[in-house]
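Cross-posting from the modeling subforum.

Setting up a comparison between two proteins and wanted a second pair of eyes on the formatting. Protein 1 (sequence, then structure tokens):
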Amino acid sequence: MIGVTSGMAQHPPTPPALFDRALLHARQRRAQMQGAVSFLLDRVAEDMAERLAAVMREFHTPVDLWTPGEGLATLRPRLPSIEHIALDAAGAEKLPFAPESLDLAVSALALQFVNDLPGVLAQVRRALKPDGLLLAAMIGGDSL
């Protein structure tokens, strides 16, 4: 029997490394040494707090995905149990959550540095409960 190739890879390749995580962290540390300038992150956090205020429910398992520093401190009064996950300097983008284990995922100004955004969003979707909420903000392509 002659095999017919579909033209598709049998095993999808690993996504390319678009961002040098070590260089990104080095630049962020250098910027912090010059003094924190967090006006953009502060604005995003205020906007997220406003949007979250419109949601009339309690969140019992919230997580903050990779927001730099204490960027979402303004959400702590509403979400005292929020867990902060730091972006791995080695570049690992595997989330440590069981399926349907979260009811809220927030991320501010971090997802634009992800090498495999569709893959990370799929992981977030699996980790969210059926009525879970993802609230994220990232810099878009024409922003700068």
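Protein 2 (same layout):
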Amino acid sequence: MSVKLKPIPLPLRTLYADLVQQVHSVVERPASLYMRAINGSRYIYAKRPVGATRRDLFIGRDGDPAAIDRALLIEQENDAARARSSLVSTLRRSGIPSPMTALAQVLDALEDAGLLRQAVVVGTAAYQCYSAPVGHVLPASAMTTQDADLATASLAISAAEAGETLETILKRADPTFRPLPGLDRAAMPSHFRAASGFVVDLLTPQRRRSDPNPMPLPALAAGAAPLQHLDWLIEDPMEAAVLYRSGIAVRIPQPARFVVHKLIIAQKRGGDTAKRAKDLMQAEALIAALKASDPFALSDAFEDACAQGASGWKRPAERSLAEIGLTPDAILG
């Protein structure tokens, strides 16, 4: 294999692991507290940065114990967020990859809405998070993306605030986001695009060939495209952090499963040679990293996938391995 990757020193990997633990423990996002006087009474509000915008949040009436408690939590989080921001800056300066602004703002808006606690980030957006977990700086050429893929196993996924649609949430990242109509104009949209060309896709595992496309997600006024193999990919996801602001908590597929999934879907791209090449590039880089950091996870994932079936799983994975100059023994050995 010709891929040569730069190892990430253990102290930096430890810092990243600390960041992951911290961002997944956040109860309140950072915000600036302020007071409003309305009809002679004082109320606590907060202004929170989200994506490319700022949100005004109602906390409660001044003097109300629940409102005071929440305001104290926000103040504590502001201090913690400043410390995490310094940690994020250190990791970025050390060469650990961070996302392009458009992607980071989308993920920030999705996290603010509570969706990243329910869904798994997949595709290149997930690949961008793997460098620290696998202990090597992955090639930047395989990280460029103009889309974000979000996979959910539950069609009951909803925003933390009742009634918020996905379009409303994405507009906090970029006000130009609009739903893209599918072939069935009456179906809920699963694709959303900004004026810049950045696209957000919603995905869900295909259970039956008769599943409608898209599958409706009524709580978000959106749909999710059903895909084969997706349930296997997102099984037992891992926690990760996106290096943006004070860190964004995400869940991504296990890197070994991501590799094998890329090997499989690369053979199902049809005439989309650009995406096929990117699939193979990402798989090849992660194979090199995992062979050094966690070879047993890689071999276990490959064996598990091959056991799912020959025609739809094993053969396409082996064909992709051949394209990047490898054999199954290189994974299993």
